[in-house]
Each structure stands twice: as C-alpha cells, then as structure tokens.
Amino acid sequence: MEEDLFSLAGDAPAPRTLSDRNVDHRAPLAVRMRPRSLEEIVGQEAALESGSPLRRLVAADDSRTAPSSVILWGPPGTGKTTLAYVVAQSGDREFVEVSAVLAGVKDIREVVDQARSRLRTVGRETVLFIDEVHRFSKSQQDALLPSVENRWVTLIAATTENPYFSVISPLLSRSIVLTLESLERSDLDTVVDRALMDERGLDGAVTLTDDAREALLRLGGGDARKILTSLEAAAAAALMKESREIDAATLAQAVNRAALRYDRAGDQHYDVTSAFIKSMRGSDVDASLHYLAQMIESGEDPRFICRRVMIAASEEVGMADPTALQVAVAAMQAVQMLGMPEGRIPLAQAVVHIATAPKSNASYQALDAAIADVRAGKGSGVPAHLRDSHYSGAKKLGHGVEYRYAHDAPHGVVGQQYAPDDLVGVDYYHPKAHGNEAQTGRRVEALRRILRSEDGS
After folding, report:
1. 8 A C-beta contact, residue 192 and residue 227
2. How would you class 109 by CB atoms within 10 Å of its CB: exposed for 0-12, middle for 13-18, buried for 19 or more?
3. Are 47 and 180 a contacting pair, CB within 8 Å?
4. Does 1.20.272.10 match the CATH number of domain 267-356?
5. Coil, strand or helix: which one is 262?
6. Would you say the C-alpha torsion 147, 152, 154, 156 has a positive or negative sign?
7. pLDDT single digits (tens) 341-380
8. How far apart are CA 446 and CA 1, in angstroms?
9. Assigned CATH class of 18-179
10. Prediction pTM value
11. For the chain, which has fewer Cβ within 10 Å, the N-terminal or C-terminal residue?
12. Are 252 and 332 in contact (CB under 8 A)?
C-alpha cells in the first residue's frame, strides 16, 4: 500500500475513493502500471476463471449472487490490491481503503455508517478494502461482522498470512477465501515489457539488457510491485548517465544490491542447493547460512528451501537428534504463516540446528536396505502367529496361535519371531555412536537380545 487511509496528522478518517487515485507521471511506476480491468491482469487464472467469486463481483448483475466478503491470500506483489481496485471500478462503486495498522474500531464504524448512508440515499455500493487484515485485532475484526452480514459493504480483505490462523472464525465463515499464486516467469516478463513500452510507464525511454532482466526478476522474488519499483530506479539511474540502456551494473547500483548470478532453473541453482545440503551435512554452520542467504536473496521459492531443510533433518541428522525434524517442520509452518522476509528467521534457526547437530543417516540407510531385500524377493511371508485372527476360522489355520502379547511382559518386550523366516536375525538398523543415537544403539542391542532369546524373556 503506497499510502495509508488515515493520516497520522488528522483526528478523523479521510476515506479515499478511486477519484483520488488518478494516475499521473508523478506517481510511482507500480501505481501507474496498475491494471485497470481484469483483462490487463496477468496470472491468477484460477481466481479469475468464469463463474469465480471475483468474476461475479465484477459483473455485479445481481448483488444477491455475488459474495459479500472475499479474503485474498497470497504472497506480496501478486495483485491483491489491484483486484480490489478492479472490483470497485465495476458498477460505479465507492472505494474505501482502510489501514489495518492505523484504523481502530471507531474508524471502522464511521466508514460503515457512511457506506450505509450512501447506500440508502443514492443507492451506491461501497467496496471496503482492508490490506493486511491479519494485523486487525479480534475486536476490530468483530466490528466488521454486521456490515458483512447485512451487505452494507462489499468487503475485500488482503493478507500475506494464512487467514485460517489469523482471521476470526465468524468472519471466515462469512467470507470466501481465494488463494493467489506467485506469478510465473512469463507473467513477470509481461509486467516488465508493459512497463517499458506503455505510455503510462516508461514509454520506450529505456531498454533492458537480457542480463539486467534476469537480475531484475531474481531480485524481485516474484513480487511484481518490487520489480517495477526496481525497474523505475534503474531507469532513472540510466537516464542520469545519459544512457538509454539498463544493464546489470546499472540495476545493481540503482537498487544497492548485487545482481547475484543464480538461475533457478540452471546449473547455479543446483550448485548452490548441493553446497547448502553438503554444508549442513558437514556441520559447517557458517557456510550453511551463507548458501541459505544466497538462495533467499536470489528469490528462491521458500517452499523449496523448506523442503530441503526438512529432508536434511532426517537424512543427515536422523536419530542422532530427533528434534531436528521437529524444528524443520516448525520452520516450514512458520514460513507458511509469516511469509517472507520474516520467514527467514525460523529458517535460519532450523539450518543452525541441523548444521550443529550430531549426524546420523542410519535410519534411512536401514530402510533402503530393507527396500533392497523386498525388491530382491526376500521375505517368505508373515509368521503364522502374527497373522490376523479376527475372523471365523482363523484359529484353525493357526493364525494368531501362540502369539505373545508384549504388554503382558514385565518390561513390555517379549521374545518371539517377528521377521519372515528367511530374514530372521537380519539387522537393517545399525545405530551410530553420535548424539542421541548412541543411547538408542544401546537400547536396540538390549531389545534384540530379548527378542531373540531362547526362553523368550
């Protein structure tokens, strides 16, 4: 959001309508290039397909069939605010934008009262747009319920956080949640090309080299608004140097960040990912954090990073520190709820935990060994005493006969055969003497002695 609805200097709210947002060339490039219709919006095909809630809101042929409240959930720069503008422009609706940071319950009620009066006197509907709605307190969200319930306003709320965690249940139940996806490379190319050539944008004043385009899209991290802001700064820097070409060096200078060489679909992607994994495996916490930083700064998908961290927690640490997987999964959930850049904080915690933890790959090596035996045809069948005996006639077949119930034993472990006949005595799991697994190894030895003992005790 470029500005807030309520001025810090004023005592009363000053709602802004679309007429207050006439685009001129003094406005930021991202504002000037904001799509004016659904046809100009790139990406989000699922959210804009025929018959979707947004399509029905824009058509507005019958307000009874259109949703009264929509929550747009997605990463920054995917078009949440733009979609709200487009909906407001259709049907000559009043557009009011509320700051979730500055507005209080009193402010919300005043906006709703004005919307009710407008609807009653001139029959004009109001679109109430609330950006970052997750920042609203419970009481602020409660204040929205009557207006949504009675259709005094059409509420469009936007959030980068999971609304099922951050929005109260009564408001969720009255709303349709639409998930916006990160823009694809082709979508971002379209955004850049329009900004370069459109008369509302740079109007052909500058060109962009291929290297600069790659760096621009990487640094933007899928955020169209961020990409346009960086492009505008680079264009100004190029023109100040009396050049009509934006190269990678000019872009890096303009945004004060190195144009990292990192192609998410090329060798650099795989090289950095490989180094990241091997550094965690090798317990070099500093190198691990460096490669994590490269991935984050180069716009790598946070979901990809989270997956690699979770795999490392099991593959590299395993039972040497079972809490590593818990930390990795928690980091993934935190990134999903927080989004980026805040998500980098739990990611760093998980990477430090994994890199500094004792290491063992024994558990997954054990499974791989078992899979190899299964693929080789080993395993002569389930022993009769372990087979299902919960049906008529099972006992006559010997199923379940002489099975010993482990909980009846003093220590909850009883000696009997569990493995198929041809795999008796085969040890798949070989615990390592690192961290927690050293203790696990001693327990495994004791368990195997009992399980394989002659007297079954």
Report:
1. yes
2. middle
3. yes
4. yes
5. coil
6. negative
7. 889 999 999 999 999 999 999 998 898 988 888 888 888 8
8. 63
9. alpha beta
10. 0.56
11. C
12. no
